[in-house]
Design brief:
The chain is mainly alpha-helical. The protein has two domains: 1-76, no CATH class; 92-199. Helices cover 72% and strands 0% of the residues. Helix 3 packs antiparallel against helix 4 (55-71), helix 4 (55-71) packs parallel to helix 6 and helix 8 (140-154) runs parallel beside helix 11.
């Protein structure tokens, strides 16, 4: 991890471990500023990728990824879109255990927001979600959560995107609605988590 990554981890350690309120406040201020920097994309991906990272650190990283997609998408060059999409989908899959639900939800929201931001750069969003999460029952909860969030995030006016992208993606989702409903009707709720998501 580079210097900005090390500084972020040190601030997270201080935030969650320091007995001194002033140190925690200083760490919190640093992390709020850090979230607004372009370096946060890569650092948070690295934090999420390390399995030995404390769960609070990974929640911070997932939450930061969501806010970056919502507010700072313009920072990214177009050639990085595909790698960001694939990375977020991989992280969603990685954190699907019930005890990781808060992290999973932040990442699922990031994927839903990214689908809207990418618009025509991810035209087969529904198909690719089904391909990745619709084949095995233990990944159904991930699919259901993202499918639920897609229309919600389309209406989320905190998402910094233009109205043409909202309209275009809304039409794309609408055209796939019958396919999504058919899937919901076909699954036999193989586990409690999937059942909860489909209600």
């Amino acid at each position: 991890m580079d210097q900005s990554g090390n500084e972020c981890v040190q601030a997270l350690q201080a935030l969650y471990s320091s007995p001194d309120p002033a140190t925690r406040k200083q760490a919190d201020s640093f992390l709020c500023r850090f979230q607004q920097t372009p370096a946060a994309w890569q650092v948070c991906d690295q934090i999420l990728s390390h399995t030995d990272t404390p769960v609070q650190f990974r929640f911070f990283a997932a939450q930061t990824m969501r806010t970056k997609v919502q507010f700072d998408f313009y920072e990214l060059p177009r050639e990085s879109y595909t790698s960001l999409r694939d990375t977020l989908l991989k992280h969603v899959n990685q954190f699907r255990a019930p005890e990781c639900q808060p992290i999973h939800t932040q990442l699922a929201m990031a994927v839903a927001d990214l689908a809207i931001q990418l618009d025509n750069d991810w035209p087969d969003v529904i198909e690719s979600l089904f391909a990745m999460f619709g084949q095995q029952p233990d990944s159904y909860p991930s699919l259901l959560e993202i499918l639920r969030l897609l229309p919600e995030e389309n209406q989320n006016h905190k998402l910094m995107t233009d109205s043409s992208k909202r309209f275009s993606t809304r039409e794309r989702f609408r055209m796939k609605a019958a396919e999504v409903v058919a899937f919901l009707l076909s699954i036999q709720c193989p586990n409690v988590q999937a059942k909860k998501e489909s209600l």
